[in-house]
Amino acid sequence: MTRWLATYAVVLGLGLVALPLAWSVCRWLPDRGASVARPLGLLLTGLVSWLGASHGVLTNDLGGALLAAALVAALGLAAGRPGLARDASGRRPLLEWLRAHRSLLLAQEAVFLAVFAAWSLVRAHDPTAVHTEQPMDLMLVTAAAYAPAMPPPDPWLAGQPIGYYYFGHWLLALLGRLAGQPPEVAYTLGQAAWYGLLALGCFGIGANLVRLARPARGWGGPIAAGALAAAAVALAGNLQGTLDLLQRAGLRFGALAAGRAAHNLAPPSDTWWWWRSSRVLEDLSPAGAHVEVIDEVPAFSYVLGDAHAHVLAQPFVLLALALALNRYLSRARPGPVEASLLAAVVAAVSFVNPADLPAAALVVLAATWSSSRGDGRGLGVAVAGALALAGGVGLMLAPFLATAQGQVEGVRANALHPTPPFQVALMFGSLLPGLALLASDPSTRPSARARAVGLVLGLLVPALVVGGIVTAAASLLARERWSSQPWTLLGLGALLGALGARLWAGGGTPAARAAVAAAALGTALVLTPELVYLHDAFGTRMNTVFKLYYQAWLLAGLAAAFALASGWNDPSRARRLLARGGAALATSGLAFTAAAAWDVTGGFASASPSFDALAGVPADERAAIEWVRANVPSDAIVLQAPGRSYSAEESRLSAATARGTLLGWEGHERQWRGRAFEAMAGERAARTDAVYRATDRASLLAALDRARTRYVLVGPVERERYALDERLLADTLDVVFAEGAVRLYRRRTLG
C-alpha cells in the first residue's frame, strides 16, 4: 500500500507543479487544462531530466529528477504568476477558479483515482512480466533507470545505445525514481497510473467539448459526457471482445462462422479468450492462408499488461489534443510559452511513439491555422508554425535522433488486402452511432453542393487510388479481391466525404466542429491502410493497421462520445434514441474489460498480490539479479546465451539489471535497427557460443578476450542450450555467485 500511495502522491504532485502553467496557457478551455496537468507535469519533468542528462547537465538519479521537477515548478510559477498574484480585489484568480470549480475537480480526481486503484488491483494479481513483449518493456524501463549517461546503453546489444524510441519507458523509470521504487515496481504501478491518466484525459476532452457546446448550463452534463468518453474510449473493449464474451457465456454463432467470418465468429480459445479482440482483421496471403493483423484498443492493451510505446503515448496524445483545442478556440497568436509548450509536447509524443507524430503535429498545425484564418493570417501562421514546430522538435530530440534507428524501408500499395466491412464493424462498430450523429448533425449541415462534392471526392479519390494500385499490380488476384470487397473503402470514403463537407461548410458550435475534425482524422487513419502501408521487417500491413487504428480509436471515440452526449436530449426523437442506444453500445465493452481482467488475474485469487514485475522469477535467479545489481559495474558485460524474442527467461538477467550481454532478443534487435543490425551484431552470437562451447583453458580465455567480458552466467537456459560441462569454467574462472541452479563466473583479469 505504501508503494501505491507513493506513486499516487508523485503523480498528484507533478500535476500540482504543472497546474499554474496549464491554467495560464489553456485559458480558452473550460477546465483551464486541469485534466491534463498531470501528464503535462510528468512529461515536462521527464523531458527536462532527459535533456539535462543528454547534455551532461543533470545526473540520471534521484537528485537529477528532483532538480528537473523543481525547474518545471519554477517555470509553472513564472508562467502562472498572473493567476497566483493578487488582483485588484485582493484575490488570487487561480485559487478563486479552483474554489468555483470544486465539482469538476472532484469528478476529475474520482475518475483518475478509481481507474488507478482498480487497475493497480488487477496488476497486483497479475504483475509478472513473463509474456509477449513485457520482458522487452521491462528491459527498456530498467535501462532508462540505471543508465549512467545518455543515450542509455542497450542491455541486449552491449556497447551500443538503445536504438528504439524509449522516452515512455524513461518516464516510467522517472515516476518510479521519484516514488522511491525499483524499475520492476515502476513498471507495474506505472501502467496503472498511465491508465488513470488515459481515462482522465478522455474525461477532460469529453467534458470540455460539451461545456463549450452548452456554456450556459452547469457542469452536470459535461461531467456525464466526460464519464461517457472515459468509459467508451479508455475502458471499453470493441465488439469482437463483446461477441467472444457472449460465446464464453454460452451463446454460439457457429451457423454464421463460415468463410471469412470463421475468423471472427468461431468459438474463442479457452486460453486467453480475449486475445482475438486484438486480431479482428484478417488478411489473406495469395494462397489464401491467414496473415496476422494487429488491431488493439486501450482496454485490451491494459488487460495484456504490455507497457509498450503505443500504450505509453496515449495520455500525451490527449495532452496534445487538449492544447490543440485550446489553440483552435483562441483568437490570439500563441505566445512564446504556448508555442514552446506545443513544440515540447509534439516532440515528446514523437519520442514516445513516432507513429503518433503525424496526427499530433497535424492537429496542432490545423488548430493554429484555424485560429488565425479569420483575419487572413491563417496560411502564413500555419507555415510559420510548421517550420517552428519542425525546428523545435528536431532541436529537442537531437540527442535521440543522433542514435535512432528503424526498420521502415518505404511505402507499399495495398494491392491484395481489402478489409471486409464486417471486420471493420466489429472493430469500430461501438462508435458508429456517435459518428452517424456527427455526420448528420443539423447544426453543421452543409449545402447540397458541398455534400455532393464531399461525397464524390470521398468515393472517387479512394476508388481512383485503388484502381491505380490494381492496374500497377497487374494481378488478376488483386482485381478479384478488390472487385468483391470494395465496401469498406467506399463506406469509409463516403463517411470521410460527409465529415469533410461539414468541416468545409462551417456552422455549428466550435465544439461540434472540433469533434467533426477529430472524427474526420480518425476516419482517414482507418482508410489509409486500405490504400498503403509502411514496408517493414514483417513485410505486411500488420504494424500500419496496428498503429493507425489505435490512434483512430482515440480520435473517433472522443468525437463519438461528444455526439452521443450532445444528442442525449436532442429535440428529434430519432436522434435522441440513436444517442441513447449508441451510448449503451459504446459502453457495452465494459463487460469485456471486467471479464478479461477477471481471467488474467485468475479471479483475483492470489494469496500474495504484488507490484513486482519480477515476482515470478525463480528464487535463485532473483538472488542473482540482486547480486549483480549490487556488485557488478554498470558498464560490465555479463555473458548469457543469445535471447530469442518472446522468451521471458532468456536474456532476463540483462533485462532486469541493465548489465549488457552480447546479444539479447535477436528478433527484436533486428526489428529496431533494420539493415544496420547485421553490421552491429557482427559475430556476437558466434563469440558467445565460443565461450560456452570452449573445450580447454586456452580456447576459453581466448573466447573471453574476443567477447570482452569477465562475467559468464550459467543458468537453466545456458545448460539446456549448450549441454554444459561446467568443470572447465570452474577450473578457469572464479565462482562469485552460486545459488540453486544459477552460477556466475568471473575472470580475474581481462587479459
Observed structural traits:
751 residues, 4-stranded mixed sheet, 63% helix, 4% strand, mainly alpha, 35 helices, two-stranded antiparallel sheet, single chain, Rossmann fold, 3 domains, 8 strands
Describe the structure.
The chain folds into three domains: 331 residues, no CATH class; 156 residues, no CATH class; 128 residues, Rossmann fold (3-Layer(aba) Sandwich), CATH 3.40.50. It is 63% helix and 4% strand. The chain is built from 35 helices and eight strands. The chain starts with a helix and ends in a 5-residue tail after the last strand.
The major pleated sheet works out as: 4 strands, mixed
Mean pLDDT over the full residue set:
92
Gross morphology: globular
Number of strands: 8
Domain count: the total is 3
Strand content: under 5%
Order of strands side by side in the largest beta sheet? Answer: 5-6-8-7
Supply Rg.
27 Å
How many individual helices?
A: 35
The helix content, as a percent range, equals 55-70%
Task: Find the structural class using helix and strand composition.
Answer: mainly alpha
Fold blueprint:
Elements: H1 2-25, H2 37-54, H3 62-79, H4 81-84, H5 93-100, H6 102-124, H7 134-146, H8 167-178, H9 183-213, H10 220-235, H11 239-248, H12 262-265, E1 282-284, E2 290-292, H13 298-304, H14 309-329, H15 336-352, H16 357-372, H17 378-396, H18 398-401, E3 410-413, H19 421-428, H20 432-439, H21 448-473, H22 476-484, H23 487-505, H24 510-531, E4 532-535, H25 542-566, H26 573-587, H27 590-600, H28 619-631, E5 638-639, H29 652-657, H30 666-673, H31 676-681, H32 684-692, H33 697-707, E6 711-714, H34 716-722, H35 727-732, E7 734-739, E8 742-746
Parallel strand pairs: 5-6
Antiparallel strand pairs: 1-2, 3-4, 6-8, 7-8
